[in-house]
Design a protein that fits this description.
single chain; 16% strand; globular; Hypothetical Protein Ychn, Chain: A; 146 residues
């Protein structure tokens, strides 16, 4: 599926400061946009749970999912959703976390708002979801007329 086949070329969504937002909300949308850049805007004081922090020591996201499940970590679902989202999209994170920490979470760090602007400016169709943790995306298949 090429860029012309997608409804959006880039998706930008924000999460809440308490870290209760997960990757589940935009999941159907991510699955409909193969390899589309997805930019996550996290609040400045965004907490990172033990499962996400454990990713720094794991060889892969999938090892991190296994660890989070086995240890019954409170953010195991977030780790699993991150791994699933990474199958469908190129994930970028703009947050107060250091670039090395973001990379350890298997995300591409964005350090400045201008970097977000470059991604958005280079895209034809942009979807912005300010409160993704309050949104559940449902993607309707387009019906083709015979």
């Amino acid at each position: 599926m090429g860029a012309a086949d997608r409804a959006f070329d880039v998706v930008v969504f924000g999460t809440d400061a308490r870290g209760t937002g997960t990757w589940e909300s935009p999941q159907p949308l991510l699955e409909s946009l193969p390899n589309a850049p997805v930019v996550v805007l996290a609040e400045p004081d965004n907490p990172t749970g033990p499962g996400l922090l454990a990713l720094r020591e794991c060889e892969s996201l999938y090892q991190g999912v296994s660890h989070a499940r086995t240890e019954h970590l409170p953010d195991a679902l977030a780790v699993e959703q991150l791994a699933r989202a990474s199958q469908f999209a190129s994930l970028y994170l703009f947050s107060s976390l250091s670039a090395s920490t973001v990379e350890d979470l298997y995300l591409t760090p964005l350090a400045k708002p201008t970097e977000i602007g470059k991604l958005v400016d280079s895209s034809g169709r942009v979807l912005i979801i300010p409160d993704a943790h309050r949104t559940y995306a449902v993607v309707q298949k387009e019906k083709h007329k015979p």
